[in-house]
Amino acid sequence: MKGPYRFSVAENQFYVLGDGDPGHLKNRTITAAGNNGLAAGAKDHAVAIAGISAGTAVISFGLSPTRLDPDESQPWEDIAEFDYTSTTETAHLTACMGPDEETEDMEVYDVDLAFAGPGDYHMRFHARCRGINPDGVQEDSEPIAEHYLLPVWPATA
Q1: Are strands 2-10 and 119-128 parallel, antiparallel or unpaired?
Q2: Mean pLDDT, residues 98-103
């Protein structure tokens, strides 16, 4: 397990992107994420919908060469599974408006989610407390409410 890490949320969303930032593809995936209310993936990008519109949230990653069972250690309120295809050597969490170096764990943006290289991956996104401050701003002076877990493994596992 890697994390937990603090990271930025802006415009109710955050991403997993491969090298080259295919920003032109983001809008297509946000529609798919809206269908399940949480997250969706595609080629070189995935998007997650947060509860807060802006501020800091917490995320942990589970990276494994074999399939991971759903996490039952926390009372997760929402879970979405999806496929992610990496055509590049790496994939990283990306903040919509960029990271805030004063309030975040910058190493969160260095975790390589395409750890087995180019290929197909399966992701299971867990979320809790997205409904505490819907569309609000998470102030740095308040305890962080939203927590996420993203287990990732090669689709061939």
Answers
A1: unpaired
A2: 62
